[in-house]
Amino acid sequence: MRARTVEELRLFVNPRNPARGWLRCGPMLAPAALGANGITRQPREGDRATPAGVFRLLEVRYRPDRVRRPRTALPTRPLKPDDGWCDATGHRLYNRPVKHPVPFPAERLWREDGLYDIIVVLDFNILPRVQGRGSAIFLHAARPDMGPTLGCVAVPRPWLERVLVHCGRETVLRTA
What we know:
1 helix
């Protein structure tokens, strides 16, 4: 039997700590880490804040040497050691996937800390893409201490795996 797909993942911010909150998926409620500076309606590169908005879930990328292909109706793609994401404001590949090595700033998606073992690419600043508005905003696994992100939304990996079972092409993430 296939899991029911949800239309929306909803983020709720902790009023006492703007870098923490909860992610609702149907009846499930997962603890969430947000950008260190909470949520912003005017995102910019390096602001350490999670952008406010409604974002489609574009695809899931995962580390095949550490995890199995996630159960989800979303498109999936295994990560490779040279995968990256350009965060060089002004570069023609800004907020786009790249292959390392590159001669400009780009985040590595193949990480040793496990945070990107499973990542969901969100449609933040994809089309249209605005230089300097922010890049590499994902839904991914949280640190064990639920420490803040640089702007992504992070939940404990077991929760992320449970949530993805209920996500499909019509699912959106609402951050505010």
